[in-house]
Amino acid sequence: MLIERISDQSVEIITPAKINLFLEVLNRRPDGYHNINSLFQAVSLYDRLTFSVSEKPGVTIELDGEIQVTTGQDNLVWQVYRLLDGQFRLPRGLEVILEKNIPVAAGLGGGSSDGAATIAACNLLFNLGLSTGDMVRLSLLIGSDLAFFFSRGQALVTGRGETVKETDFSTDYWIVLVCPGMEISTASSYASLKRGLTISKTPFNLAPGPRVEELVESLQLSGNDFEEIHLESYPELGRIKDELLQAGAALSRMTGSGPSVFGVFSEAPELIGGEAFGRKGWRMHTVLPVLFPTQA
After folding, report:
1. Which of 5, 8, 73, 133 has a CA that sits 20 to 30 A from residue 159's CA?
2. What domain count does the chain have?
3. What is the pLDDT of residues 45-72, one digit of tens each?
Protein backbone atom coordinates (compact mmCIF):
# COMPACT_ATOMS: atom_id res chain seq x y z
CA MET A 1 0.00 0.00 0.00
CA LEU A 2 1.02 3.62 -0.47
CA ILE A 3 0.48 5.94 2.49
CA GLU A 4 0.44 9.74 2.34
CA ARG A 5 0.14 11.75 5.53
CA ILE A 6 -2.09 14.70 4.63
CA SER A 7 -2.08 16.28 8.10
CA ASP A 8 -1.99 15.31 11.77
CA GLN A 9 -5.68 14.52 11.44
CA SER A 10 -5.85 12.87 8.02
CA VAL A 11 -4.10 10.20 5.95
CA GLU A 12 -4.69 8.87 2.43
CA ILE A 13 -3.91 5.27 1.52
CA ILE A 14 -3.92 3.69 -1.94
CA THR A 15 -4.30 -0.05 -1.58
CA PRO A 16 -4.24 -2.66 -4.36
CA ALA A 17 -6.13 -5.71 -5.52
CA LYS A 18 -4.26 -9.01 -5.62
CA ILE A 19 -4.30 -12.10 -7.77
CA ASN A 20 -3.26 -15.65 -6.91
CA LEU A 21 -0.78 -16.74 -9.56
CA PHE A 22 -1.29 -20.23 -8.19
CA LEU A 23 -3.39 -21.46 -5.27
CA GLU A 24 -3.44 -24.80 -3.49
CA VAL A 25 -5.76 -25.67 -0.61
CA LEU A 26 -3.83 -28.34 1.25
CA ASN A 27 -6.03 -29.37 4.16
CA ARG A 28 -8.52 -28.23 6.77
CA ARG A 29 -7.06 -27.11 10.08
CA PRO A 30 -8.35 -27.99 13.55
CA ASP A 31 -9.22 -24.29 14.03
CA GLY A 32 -11.62 -24.45 11.06
CA TYR A 33 -9.41 -22.55 8.63
CA HIS A 34 -7.56 -24.15 5.71
CA ASN A 35 -3.85 -24.33 5.01
CA ILE A 36 -3.01 -22.86 1.63
CA ASN A 37 0.03 -22.56 -0.60
CA SER A 38 -0.17 -19.61 -2.98
CA LEU A 39 1.79 -16.91 -4.77
CA PHE A 40 0.04 -13.57 -4.22
CA GLN A 41 0.74 -10.66 -6.55
CA ALA A 42 -0.53 -7.11 -6.06
CA VAL A 43 -1.86 -5.44 -9.22
CA SER A 44 -2.54 -1.88 -10.31
CA LEU A 45 -6.24 -1.82 -9.55
CA TYR A 46 -6.66 0.31 -6.44
CA ASP A 47 -9.04 1.47 -3.78
CA ARG A 48 -8.28 4.91 -2.37
CA LEU A 49 -9.19 5.60 1.25
CA THR A 50 -8.98 8.97 2.99
CA PHE A 51 -9.12 8.64 6.77
CA SER A 52 -9.79 11.62 9.04
CA VAL A 53 -10.11 11.79 12.81
CA SER A 54 -13.67 12.53 13.93
CA GLU A 55 -15.14 13.74 17.21
CA LYS A 56 -18.07 11.44 16.49
CA PRO A 57 -17.48 7.92 17.85
CA GLY A 58 -17.34 4.95 15.48
CA VAL A 59 -16.89 5.10 11.73
CA THR A 60 -18.63 7.11 9.03
CA ILE A 61 -17.98 5.87 5.49
CA GLU A 62 -18.71 7.97 2.41
CA LEU A 63 -18.53 6.12 -0.92
CA ASP A 64 -16.82 7.79 -3.85
CA GLY A 65 -16.28 5.14 -6.50
CA GLU A 66 -17.94 3.01 -9.13
CA ILE A 67 -18.36 -0.03 -6.84
CA GLN A 68 -21.14 0.02 -4.24
CA VAL A 69 -20.50 -1.67 -0.88
CA THR A 70 -22.08 -1.63 2.54
CA THR A 71 -21.04 1.31 4.70
CA GLY A 72 -22.41 -0.26 7.87
CA GLN A 73 -20.74 -2.36 10.52
CA ASP A 74 -20.32 -5.34 8.15
CA ASN A 75 -17.68 -3.36 6.26
CA LEU A 76 -14.13 -4.47 7.14
CA VAL A 77 -13.17 -0.85 7.84
CA TRP A 78 -15.74 -0.88 10.64
CA GLN A 79 -14.61 -4.32 11.85
CA VAL A 80 -10.99 -3.20 12.09
CA TYR A 81 -11.96 -0.04 13.96
CA ARG A 82 -13.98 -2.07 16.49
CA LEU A 83 -11.06 -4.45 17.00
CA LEU A 84 -8.57 -1.66 17.58
CA ASP A 85 -10.97 0.25 19.79
CA GLY A 86 -11.37 -2.86 21.95
CA GLN A 87 -7.60 -3.29 22.18
CA PHE A 88 -6.49 0.34 22.56
CA ARG A 89 -9.61 2.35 23.47
CA LEU A 90 -9.28 4.73 20.55
CA PRO A 91 -9.92 8.29 21.69
CA ARG A 92 -11.98 9.37 18.67
CA GLY A 93 -13.80 8.05 15.64
CA LEU A 94 -13.01 7.94 11.93
CA GLU A 95 -14.47 9.59 8.87
CA VAL A 96 -13.57 7.62 5.75
CA ILE A 97 -13.95 8.52 2.09
CA LEU A 98 -13.77 5.21 0.22
CA GLU A 99 -13.11 5.34 -3.51
CA LYS A 100 -14.04 1.74 -4.25
CA ASN A 101 -12.73 0.41 -7.55
CA ILE A 102 -11.88 -3.21 -6.70
CA PRO A 103 -14.88 -5.48 -7.38
CA VAL A 104 -16.44 -7.09 -4.31
CA ALA A 105 -16.47 -10.85 -3.66
CA ALA A 106 -14.35 -11.34 -6.76
CA GLY A 107 -11.27 -13.18 -5.47
CA LEU A 108 -9.24 -9.96 -5.65
CA GLY A 109 -8.88 -9.23 -1.93
CA GLY A 110 -10.45 -5.78 -2.06
CA GLY A 111 -12.08 -5.95 1.36
CA SER A 112 -8.93 -7.34 2.95
CA SER A 113 -6.89 -4.61 1.29
CA ASP A 114 -9.17 -1.93 2.76
CA GLY A 115 -9.02 -3.62 6.17
CA ALA A 116 -5.21 -3.60 6.17
CA ALA A 117 -5.24 0.07 5.16
CA THR A 118 -7.49 0.84 8.13
CA ILE A 119 -5.04 -0.75 10.56
CA ALA A 120 -2.22 1.33 9.07
CA ALA A 121 -4.30 4.52 9.20
CA CYS A 122 -5.34 4.03 12.83
CA ASN A 123 -1.75 3.30 13.76
CA LEU A 124 -0.72 6.70 12.39
CA LEU A 125 -3.71 8.81 13.38
CA PHE A 126 -3.95 7.52 16.95
CA ASN A 127 -0.19 7.10 17.52
CA LEU A 128 -0.50 3.43 18.43
CA GLY A 129 3.19 2.74 17.83
CA LEU A 130 2.59 -0.59 16.12
CA SER A 131 5.32 -2.27 14.09
CA THR A 132 4.51 -3.99 10.80
CA GLY A 133 4.63 -7.31 12.66
CA ASP A 134 2.17 -5.99 15.24
CA MET A 135 -0.21 -4.88 12.50
CA VAL A 136 0.05 -8.25 10.76
CA ARG A 137 -0.80 -10.07 13.99
CA LEU A 138 -3.82 -7.85 14.57
CA SER A 139 -4.94 -8.29 10.96
CA LEU A 140 -5.21 -12.06 11.43
CA LEU A 141 -7.93 -11.47 14.01
CA ILE A 142 -10.02 -10.04 11.15
CA GLY A 143 -9.23 -12.30 8.20
CA SER A 144 -6.56 -14.46 6.60
CA ASP A 145 -5.79 -12.31 3.54
CA LEU A 146 -5.08 -9.01 5.32
CA ALA A 147 -1.50 -9.94 6.28
CA PHE A 148 -0.34 -9.98 2.65
CA PHE A 149 -1.15 -6.29 2.18
CA PHE A 150 1.59 -5.30 4.61
CA SER A 151 4.16 -6.85 2.25
CA ARG A 152 5.88 -5.32 -0.79
CA GLY A 153 3.20 -6.82 -3.02
CA GLN A 154 4.56 -10.21 -4.06
CA ALA A 155 4.80 -13.11 -1.63
CA LEU A 156 4.46 -16.82 -1.12
CA VAL A 157 1.58 -17.14 1.34
CA THR A 158 1.16 -20.29 3.42
CA GLY A 159 -0.57 -21.48 6.57
CA ARG A 160 -3.99 -19.89 6.74
CA GLY A 161 -2.45 -16.71 5.35
CA GLU A 162 -0.31 -15.72 8.33
CA THR A 163 3.00 -16.80 6.79
CA VAL A 164 4.00 -14.25 4.15
CA LYS A 165 7.40 -14.80 2.55
CA GLU A 166 8.34 -12.04 0.13
CA THR A 167 9.59 -13.27 -3.24
CA ASP A 168 11.41 -11.80 -6.22
CA PHE A 169 9.81 -13.26 -9.32
CA SER A 170 9.51 -11.30 -12.56
CA THR A 171 6.86 -8.58 -12.80
CA ASP A 172 7.57 -7.87 -16.46
CA TYR A 173 4.14 -8.73 -17.84
CA TRP A 174 0.59 -7.46 -18.25
CA ILE A 175 -2.57 -8.87 -16.73
CA VAL A 176 -6.12 -8.76 -18.01
CA LEU A 177 -8.72 -9.24 -15.29
CA VAL A 178 -12.23 -10.34 -16.18
CA CYS A 179 -14.76 -9.90 -13.39
CA PRO A 180 -18.05 -11.63 -14.29
CA GLY A 181 -21.31 -10.59 -12.73
CA MET A 182 -21.81 -13.59 -10.47
CA GLU A 183 -21.34 -14.24 -6.77
CA ILE A 184 -19.49 -17.27 -5.40
CA SER A 185 -19.38 -17.82 -1.65
CA THR A 186 -15.85 -18.28 -0.29
CA ALA A 187 -17.11 -20.40 2.61
CA SER A 188 -19.08 -22.71 0.34
CA SER A 189 -16.12 -22.93 -2.04
CA TYR A 190 -13.87 -24.24 0.73
CA ALA A 191 -16.59 -26.62 1.90
CA SER A 192 -17.01 -27.99 -1.62
CA LEU A 193 -13.34 -28.92 -1.82
CA LYS A 194 -13.91 -31.42 1.02
CA ARG A 195 -10.37 -31.14 2.36
CA GLY A 196 -9.73 -33.21 5.48
CA LEU A 197 -7.34 -32.59 8.36
CA THR A 198 -4.53 -34.57 6.71
CA ILE A 199 -2.42 -32.95 3.99
CA SER A 200 -2.99 -35.11 0.92
CA LYS A 201 -0.28 -33.80 -1.42
CA THR A 202 3.16 -32.22 -1.51
CA PRO A 203 2.91 -28.43 -1.79
CA PHE A 204 3.91 -27.01 -5.16
CA ASN A 205 7.31 -25.29 -5.35
CA LEU A 206 7.67 -22.54 -7.92
CA ALA A 207 10.97 -22.84 -9.77
CA PRO A 208 13.26 -19.78 -9.57
CA GLY A 209 14.04 -17.85 -12.74
CA PRO A 210 14.57 -14.17 -13.59
CA ARG A 211 12.60 -14.10 -16.85
CA VAL A 212 8.84 -13.92 -17.20
CA GLU A 213 8.93 -16.87 -19.62
CA GLU A 214 10.44 -19.00 -16.86
CA LEU A 215 7.81 -17.82 -14.40
CA VAL A 216 4.96 -18.72 -16.76
CA GLU A 217 6.52 -22.09 -17.60
CA SER A 218 6.71 -22.95 -13.90
CA LEU A 219 3.21 -21.64 -13.17
CA GLN A 220 1.79 -23.89 -15.88
CA LEU A 221 2.73 -26.84 -13.68
CA SER A 222 0.42 -25.52 -10.96
CA GLY A 223 -3.16 -24.28 -10.88
CA ASN A 224 -5.98 -23.03 -8.69
CA ASP A 225 -7.65 -25.80 -6.71
CA PHE A 226 -11.00 -24.01 -6.76
CA GLU A 227 -11.18 -24.41 -10.52
CA GLU A 228 -11.85 -28.12 -10.11
CA ILE A 229 -15.27 -27.31 -8.65
CA HIS A 230 -16.13 -23.95 -10.19
CA LEU A 231 -15.43 -24.68 -13.85
CA GLU A 232 -18.02 -27.44 -13.66
CA SER A 233 -20.61 -25.39 -11.78
CA TYR A 234 -19.98 -22.16 -13.70
CA PRO A 235 -19.05 -23.07 -17.30
CA GLU A 236 -18.80 -19.38 -18.23
CA LEU A 237 -15.52 -19.27 -16.27
CA GLY A 238 -14.02 -21.85 -18.61
CA ARG A 239 -15.16 -19.83 -21.57
CA ILE A 240 -13.46 -16.72 -20.14
CA LYS A 241 -10.20 -18.68 -19.79
CA ASP A 242 -10.50 -19.88 -23.39
CA GLU A 243 -11.16 -16.39 -24.72
CA LEU A 244 -8.18 -14.93 -22.87
CA LEU A 245 -5.93 -17.65 -24.27
CA GLN A 246 -7.29 -17.04 -27.76
CA ALA A 247 -6.53 -13.33 -27.26
CA GLY A 248 -2.87 -14.19 -26.67
CA ALA A 249 -2.56 -14.86 -22.95
CA ALA A 250 0.38 -17.11 -22.06
CA LEU A 251 -1.51 -18.28 -18.96
CA SER A 252 -5.09 -17.96 -17.74
CA ARG A 253 -6.72 -19.04 -14.51
CA MET A 254 -9.10 -18.05 -11.76
CA THR A 255 -7.93 -15.98 -8.80
CA GLY A 256 -8.85 -16.76 -5.20
CA SER A 257 -12.10 -18.65 -4.85
CA GLY A 258 -13.39 -16.78 -7.89
CA PRO A 259 -15.14 -15.69 -9.89
CA SER A 260 -12.55 -13.33 -11.43
CA VAL A 261 -10.28 -14.81 -14.08
CA PHE A 262 -6.98 -13.34 -15.24
CA GLY A 263 -4.74 -13.73 -18.26
CA VAL A 264 -0.98 -13.12 -18.29
CA PHE A 265 0.34 -11.33 -21.39
CA SER A 266 3.99 -10.79 -22.27
CA GLU A 267 3.17 -7.53 -24.09
CA ALA A 268 0.51 -4.88 -23.61
CA PRO A 269 -2.70 -6.46 -24.95
CA GLU A 270 -5.09 -4.68 -27.25
CA LEU A 271 -7.88 -5.51 -24.84
CA ILE A 272 -8.81 -2.47 -22.76
CA GLY A 273 -10.94 -1.83 -19.70
CA GLY A 274 -14.69 -1.83 -20.07
CA GLU A 275 -17.43 -4.36 -20.66
CA ALA A 276 -15.91 -7.82 -20.96
CA PHE A 277 -16.57 -9.94 -24.05
CA GLY A 278 -19.85 -8.15 -24.68
CA ARG A 279 -21.45 -9.49 -21.49
CA LYS A 280 -23.48 -6.84 -19.73
CA GLY A 281 -22.34 -6.31 -16.16
CA TRP A 282 -18.96 -8.00 -16.70
CA ARG A 283 -15.92 -5.80 -16.28
CA MET A 284 -12.44 -6.03 -17.74
CA HIS A 285 -9.34 -4.35 -16.34
CA THR A 286 -5.88 -4.26 -17.91
CA VAL A 287 -3.36 -3.96 -15.08
CA LEU A 288 0.28 -4.47 -14.16
CA PRO A 289 1.94 -6.29 -11.26
CA VAL A 290 3.05 -3.75 -8.65
CA LEU A 291 5.59 -3.65 -5.83
CA PHE A 292 5.68 -1.17 -2.96
CA PRO A 293 8.39 0.20 -0.69
CA THR A 294 9.16 -2.06 2.27
CA GLN A 295 7.00 -1.19 5.27
CA ALA A 296 8.90 0.16 8.27
Report:
1. 73
2. 2
3. 999 999 999 999 999 999 997 788 999 9
